[in-house]
C-alpha cells in the first residue's frame, strides 16, 4: 500500500514525542555566539537519552534573519551561520543512526524580501513575468500611493502596523501578514505552488521525515482581499479574518499531499501551524480520509490569558477556562483527526513561568506537573528545547536586552503612542518570544556551556542552578521526570489510544481526567493540583488503592479515598478491568 495514504492503521507518530530545536539557541560549536548544526550533532546523545522520537528543526535556510530565519531567501540550502548542506546530511544521518527522525520547518506563506523570487517580482514591475508570484495591489481608489490610509485594505501585520508596504518604483503595495521583509507568496498562482512542491520533494529525497508547516492555514486569501477586522497585534481573534482558512485552503493542502506526500515510500509526519483554527476546521484538516495533514497546532489554549490588547496584554489564566478549552479539543478530535499537544515553542514565554510557578520552591514540581498534564492527553506531545529542564523566563532589564522583531516593533509602536516604557517592558518581560529564545542551558559554566563566544542573546543567569548537566545527575530532576513520561508514552497504549474524560471541570485548582483504553481494559487517572496550596480531592470510585504509575512527589503511597494533593503535585494511576 502506498504510504501516507492509509486511513486505517495507527501511524508511528501517534505514540511519538517530538522535540523542537531552535538552532540559533541550541548549541554553538564555532564560538560565533549563534547555535549551529554541528552543535546539534554534538548533543544528539542527550536527546537520545531523553528518549524523544522526532526532532523538529526551526528554519536553518539562508536568511537575512529579520525574523530569525522565518524569512527565507533560499529554500534549498543551509545558512552559513548554521553550516553547510554537508553538515546537514551528517546531522540527518546521525539522527537516523540513533533511531530518531527529523522534521523540517516549511515556511511558505511568505519568503524573505531578499529571495530571488521576490526581487524579480518587485523589479520586473507590474507587467513582469514574476509579478504574480506575490500579492501586489494598487492603492485604495482615490488615494495617492504612499499616503496615509492608501493601503489596499485594512489588514494589520502580526508584527505591528499595516500588512502592506508601498513600493515607490511601481506605486503598488505588496502584502505581508508578518514583517515587511516577509512578503506573502501568491498561492493562487499554480507556478508558485509547483515550485514549493518541487522544493519539498527535494528535501524528502535528501531523507527528511516530514514538515512542520508555518502558518499554513493563512495560505489562501480571497483574491478580492476584502477589508476585515484588523487583527490585534500578535493576538488571535475569532477566526473571522478572511485569510484564516481562506476559500481554497483545503484544496491547496490536498494538492500538496497528492503532489508531494502521497507517493512517498516512507510514512512522514506533517503538522500545520494554524492560528485561529477552529475545532471543526482542524478535524477536516486532519481527517485521514481527506489526505491533507496529520495534525495541527491550534492556538486556543495559549490565547486564554490574553486581554483585548492581545499578546502583550497578559491576564491571569482561569484554570476552568483552560479545562473547557483543552477538553473541547480532546472531544472534538476523539473520533476523527489528531491533536498536537504543546505548552511551549519559540513563540511563547516559558511554560513554567506562564502556567506554573518558577520560584525556587515550586519550579521543579510545577514543571513536572505541566508535563504530566500535557503528555497524558490524547495527541502527539511536543517539547520545546529547555522545557525538559524547566527553563524559565529571563530577567530582561531594558529594551536593549530584547532581540525579537515582534517585541521591538511593539515597543517602538507603544512608545510612539505615548505609553509608559516601564509598563510596556513589564508586558514584554512576561510575554516576549525572547523568553523562549535565550540559549539552552547545558551546564553551570559561563554562558551555560552554549558558546565560548558572546551569545547573540544573553543566557539566563539561572543556568548556574538550572542546567542539563546538573539535571542528568539528579534522578529527581525535571529532565528525568520527562524521561519517565516519554517512556510511558511508548509503553502504555492507553496514553495513545485511550478515550479522554475530564473530571472536576468546575474546580479552580484541580486538573483531573481519565484515559480509558477499551481494547486492553486499561484506565489511567491523572490528578494534578495547579496551585501553591494543598488541596483535598475526592478520588473517583474504584481508584482508591490503585497502582501509582508516576508522580512528581517523593512519597507515592497507595491512593486513599480522599487524597490531599501537595502544592503542584501531579500523579498518574493505573487500573485494569479484571
Ligand atoms: O508564527 C505564527 C504566528 O501566528 C506568530 O506570528 C505568532 O502570532 C507570534 O509569534 C505571536 O507572538 C510563525 C512562527 O512560529 C513565528 O516564529 C514566525 O515569526 C511567524 O510564523 C512568521 O513566519
Task: Please indicate the count of domains.
Answer: 4
Count the E strands: 20
The CATH homologous superfamily of the largest domain is called Glycosidases
Provide the structure class: alpha/beta
Helix content: 25-40%
Output the strand order for the largest sheet: 9-8-7-3-2-1-13-12
Proportion of residues in extended strands: 15-25%
SS field, number of helical segments = 16
CATH-derived architecture of the largest domain: Alpha-Beta Barrel
CATH class of the largest domain: Alpha Beta
pLDDT under 50 segments (min length 5)? Answer: 231-237
Query: What ions, cofactors and ligands are bound?
Result: 1-O-alpha-D-glucopyranosyl-D-fructose
| Shape assignment | globular
Round the mean pLDDT to the nearest integer and report it. 95
Instruction: Output the CATH topology of the largest domain.
Output: TIM Barrel
**Biggest pleated-sheet summary:** 8 strands, parallel
How far apart lie the N and C ends? 38 Å
What is the C-alpha radius of gyration, as a whole number of Å? 24 Å
Q: Overview of this structure, please?
A:
The chain contains 16 helices and 20 strands. It is an alpha/beta fold. It folds into 4 domains: 18-111 and 188-397 and 461-481, TIM Barrel, CATH 3.20.20.80; 116-175, Oligo-1,6-glucosidase, domain 2 (Alpha-Beta Complex); 398-431, no CATH class; 498-576, Golgi alpha-mannosidase II (Immunoglobulin-like, Sandwich), CATH 2.60.40.1180. The strands form 5 sheets. Strands 9-8-7-3-2-1-13-12 form an 8-stranded parallel β-sheet, covered by helices on one side. The longest helix is centred in the middle third of the chain and has 17 residues, at 190-206. It is globular, with a radius of gyration of 24 Å. The model is unreliable at 231-237 (pLDDT under 50). 1-O-alpha-D-glucopyranosyl-D-fructose (TEU) binds at residues 67, 70, 107, 158, 178, 214-215, 234, 273, 275, 311, 346-347, 406, 433.
Amino acid at each position: 500500500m502506498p504510504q501516507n495514504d492509509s486511513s486505517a492503521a495507527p501511524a508511528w507518530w501517534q505514540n511519538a514525542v517530538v522535540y523542537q530545536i531552535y538552532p540559533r539557541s541550541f548549541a554553538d560549536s564555532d564560538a560565533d555566539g549563534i547555535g549551529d548544526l554541528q552543535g546539534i550533532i554534538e548533543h544528539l546523545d542527550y536527546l537520545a537519552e531523553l528518549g524523544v522520537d522526532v526532532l523538529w528543526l526551526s528554519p536553518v535556510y539562508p536568511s537575512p534573519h529579520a525574523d530569525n530565519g522565518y524569512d527565507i531567501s533560499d529554500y534549498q540550502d543551509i545558512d552559513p551561520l548554521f553550516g553547510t548542506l554537508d553538515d546537514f546530511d551528517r546531522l540527518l544521518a546521525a539522527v537516523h543512526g540513533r533511531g530518531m527522525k527529523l522534521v523540517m520547518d516549511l515556511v511558505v506563506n511568505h519568503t524573505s524580501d531578499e529571495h530571488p523570487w521576490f526581487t524579480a517580482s518587485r523589479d520586473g514591475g507590474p507587467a513582469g513575468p514574476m509579478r504574480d508570484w506575490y500579492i501586489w495591489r494598487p492603492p485604495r481608489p482615490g488615494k495617492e500611493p504612499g499616503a496615509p490610509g492608501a493601503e489596499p485594505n485594512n489588514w494589520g501585520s502580526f508584527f505591528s502596523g499595516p500588512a502592506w508596504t508601498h513600493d515607490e518604483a511601481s506605486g503598488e503595495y505588496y502584502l505581508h501578514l508578518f514583517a515587511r521583509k516577509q512578503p506573502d507568496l501568491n498561492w493562487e498562482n499554480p507556478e508558485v505552488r509547483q515550485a514549493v512542491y518541487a522544493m519539498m520533494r527535494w528535501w524528502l529525497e535528501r531523507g527528511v521525515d516530514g514538515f512542520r508547516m508555518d502558518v499554513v492555514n493563512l495560505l489562501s486569501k480571497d483574491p478580492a482581499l476584502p477589508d476585515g477586522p484588523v487583527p490585534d497585534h500578535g493576538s488571535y481573534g475569532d477566526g473571522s479574518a478572511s485569510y484564516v482558512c481562506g476559500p481554497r485552503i483545503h484544496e491547496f493542502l490536498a494538492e500538496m499531499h497528492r503532489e508531494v506526500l502521497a507517493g512517498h515510500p516512507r510514512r512522514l509526519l506533517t503538522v500545520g501551524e494554524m492560528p485561529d483554527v477552529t475545532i471543526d476546521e482542524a478535524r477536516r484538516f486532519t481527517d485521514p480520509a481527506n489526505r491533507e495533514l496529520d495534525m495541527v497546532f491550534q492556538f486556543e489554549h495559549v490565547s486564554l490569558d490574553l486581554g483585548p490588547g492581545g499578546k502583550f496584554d497578559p491576564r491571569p489564566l482561569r484554570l476552568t477556562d483552560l479545562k473547557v478549552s483543552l477538553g473541547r479539543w480532546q472531544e472534538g478530535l476523539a473520533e476523527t483527526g489528531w491533536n498536537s499537544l504543546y505548552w511551549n515553542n519559540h513563540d511563547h514565554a516559558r511554560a513554567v513561568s506562564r502556567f506554573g510557578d518558577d520560584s525556587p520552591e515550586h519550579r521543579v514540581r510545577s514543571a513536572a506537573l505541566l508535563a504530566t498534564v500535557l503528555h497524558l492527553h490524547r495527541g502527539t506531545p511536543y517539547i520545546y528545547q529547555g522545557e525538559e529542564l524547566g527553563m524559565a523566563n529571563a530577567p530582561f532589564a531594558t529594551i536593549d536586552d530584547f532581540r525579537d522583531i515582534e517585541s521591538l516593533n511593539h515597543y517602538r509602536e507603544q512608545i510612539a503612542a505615548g505609553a509608559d516604557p516601564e509598563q510596556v517592558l513589564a508586558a514584554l518581560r512576561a510575554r516576549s518570544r525572547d523568553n523562549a529564545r535565550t540559549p539552552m542551558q547545558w551546564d553551570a559554566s559561563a554562558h551555560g556551556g552554549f558558546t565560548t563566544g558572546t551569545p547573540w542573546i544573553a543566557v539566563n543567569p539561572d543556568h548556574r542552578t538550572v542546567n542539563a548537566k546538573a539535571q542528568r545527575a539528579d534522578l529527581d530532576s525535571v529532565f528525568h521526570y520527562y524521561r519517565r513520561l516519554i517512556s510511558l508514552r511508548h509503553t502504555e497504549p492507553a496514553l495513545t489510544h485511550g478515550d479522554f474524560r475530564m473530571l472536576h471541570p468546575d474546580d479552580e485548582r484541580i486538573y483531573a481526567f481519565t484515559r480509558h483504553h477499551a481494547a486492553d481494559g486499561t484506565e489511567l487517572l491523572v490528578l494534578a493540583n495547579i496551585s501553591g496550596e494543598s488541596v483535598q480531592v475526592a478520588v473517583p470510585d474504584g481508584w482508591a488503592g490503585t497502582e501509582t504509575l508516576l508522580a512528581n512527589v517523593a512519597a507515592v503511597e497507595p491512593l486513599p479515598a480522599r487524597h490531599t494533593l501537595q502544592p503542584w503535585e501531579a500523579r498518574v494511576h493505573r487500573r485494569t478491568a479484571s
